[in-house]
Amino acid sequence: MRKIILFSGLLLTLNHANAEEVTPLNIYTVNYPVKFFAERIAEQYAHVTLPMPTDIDPAFWSPKAEDIASLQKADMILLNGANYAKWLPKVSLPLFKIVNTSSEFREAYISLNEGVTHNHGTGGKHSHTGTAFTTWLDLSLAEKQAKSIFKALSRKQPKLNAKFVKNFMPLQEALLGLDSELSEIGKALNGKALLGSHPVYQYMRKRYQLNLESVHWEPEEAPTEEQWGQLKELIAKHPAKWMLWEGVPVMETVSKLDALGIKSIVFTPIANLPEAGDFLSIMHENVARLRAILEK
Amino acid sequence: MIDSLYLAWRYVAYNRVKTITLILCISLVSFLPFALKILLKESEHQLLSRATTTPLLVGAKGNSLDLVMNSLYFSKEKPDFISMKAIEKIMDSYLALPIPLYTRFHAREYPIVGTTLDYFEFRQHTIADGRAFAMIGESVIGADVATRLNLTVGDSILSSPENLFDLAGVYPLKMTVTGILQKTNSVDDKAVFVDLKTTWVIQGLGHGHQDVKTLKEPGDVLSSSEKLVTTSAKIKQYTEINLDNLESFHFHGDSSIYPLTAIIAVPQDQKSATILRGRYLSEQKNQQIVRPKQVIEDLLGNIFQIKEFIDAVVLIVAIAMVLAIFLVFSLSFRLRQKEISTILHLGCSRSTVIQLIGAEILIITLFCSALCFSALLVLQYFQGEIVHQLFIS
Questions:
Q1: For residue A115, what is the nearest residue in chain B, using CA coordinates?
Q2: pLDDT tens-digit profile of B11-25?
Q3: Cβ within 8 Å, pair A118-B250
Q4: ipTM for the predicted complex
Q5: Gap from A119 CA to chain B (nearest CA, Å)
Q6: For chain B, where are the E strands, in sequence order?
């Protein structure tokens, strides 16, 4: 018995030593949620980089030549999928290193029909419509994305599988917990009309059965008269009392909305690195603000 | 002996027409089996070396030889297209890593191979000068393309239109050369490699043009609504992709149905390869998975059957030729009877006569050997090119 315990101890020590020896993976991601999931699961076994500046929307980033060179040298490139990174079709990346974290629910992508259609001369007309890409705002899909990252990491570093499992489990629990909370809020809202300041809440609307219509406003810019006019037309058909914002809107907009009887709350998708907090803490804050609608 | 050789040399030099005819006939018959052997050995080497290193190929159902020849040797015979969904299917299976190939277009006579960077890693190619392509519109050219077209890094190469009479077709794309491959002694030396998406731009599935929202010239916009802008045909479409206009390039439609000619599937292990093959056999109605080595071995089997037939023909011709030569010599000796009896009357022995005839045969044999050897040397030098033209292109 003593020999078995000693042998098991030796095996565990060897396994631990092997895990410590592994060179950290050089991982590139396309947005903050994916970076957060990868960092949580891989911990010190990966350097996870989000290559764009923090003040831009990662979906519309344009990589420079040196960024592409760095991406080409990565061990793994984690994509969000759903045509998220608009720069992706213009650059050349090794397919072997790419992991589409949403490929397992490709059928659940939401198509958009909001782009401008144009044609050239008498040739066939074509539209620039696309796919809604803020998949992680449906927290059940976010959990699937995290699971996909976990699987990719385990395939890449099978020796570290046990560690990845250990890190993934609490993350999975947290994401599914948030999903339950949002589902509960969605049910409680019971079809109450809501507005979105930007068309980024499609997956959230579908999953949590929110009666939400979106305009196309930016939080840091005051809407034009034309945009106010469009809003008035919208609320005539969709009498919403709350507008969800990606970021904190300018005071002028908040006041004008107040005058129309519409309260503003922030539900940020946190696509880029936050100044403070992390994905889970910010998502908890988002949920708490949304829950506040029920209380008022 | 030297005297005999001198007399024999004077004789063959005097009868040069007969001698040259004899030398050519004998050389040709000797050259043919050796030449055939060299060419077949080279074709076996060329065909098998690439096929052996390519584990599996996925393509449209149809002629598997066309699929292999197009995917491995970029032959002009194109298989039917498959879609990008086939890539997703392989990736989702985690059984193999896919390398897409789209070999529809040409730049002059050189094939444009649309693929991903993984191709270079898979074939273990290194870039001798410059760098790999990093964005659409960039290209890496084979060593022979660079030499023959005198291209260096920074130069451009233009895609050729598929049909010269298609005036309404897509514009040729001017592609920047960003790298030149190290010489590989394979068909990759004669190819232009681009990102897969670049080939879709050449096809017209993606394009770049002036921003339709900023058109100011009267007549540029025929009609405009919130969701539809109709512009005139004079809107400027870009025929070159650079950092200034890269942003304007975009693709239309569902990219998962964009075309490919084949996929090289690199399985994780033997078991994965077997499972993947099984899935294609049982599930795929419109696609096939083939082992290039098997297809090429079948092809070589046919070629060797033909070789055996040709060998038999050459043997018959050789026997006929030997008989003809024998006849030529015996007739020649009969005609030279007076000459031989004069030599005997002069006091020469019969062995001297035999020596003279032997020397003549030796001289002719030496000339034949020299000619045959030279021709084989020339053939050996060009064997790669000849095999490529005869068996691969």
A1: B227
A2: 889 888 988 988 998
A3: no
A4: 0.83
A5: 5
A6: 56-60, 82-83, 96-101, 106-107, 110-115, 127-130, 138-141, 156-158, 174-181, 192-195, 206-208, 221-224, 228-231, 249-251, 259-260, 262-267, 287-290
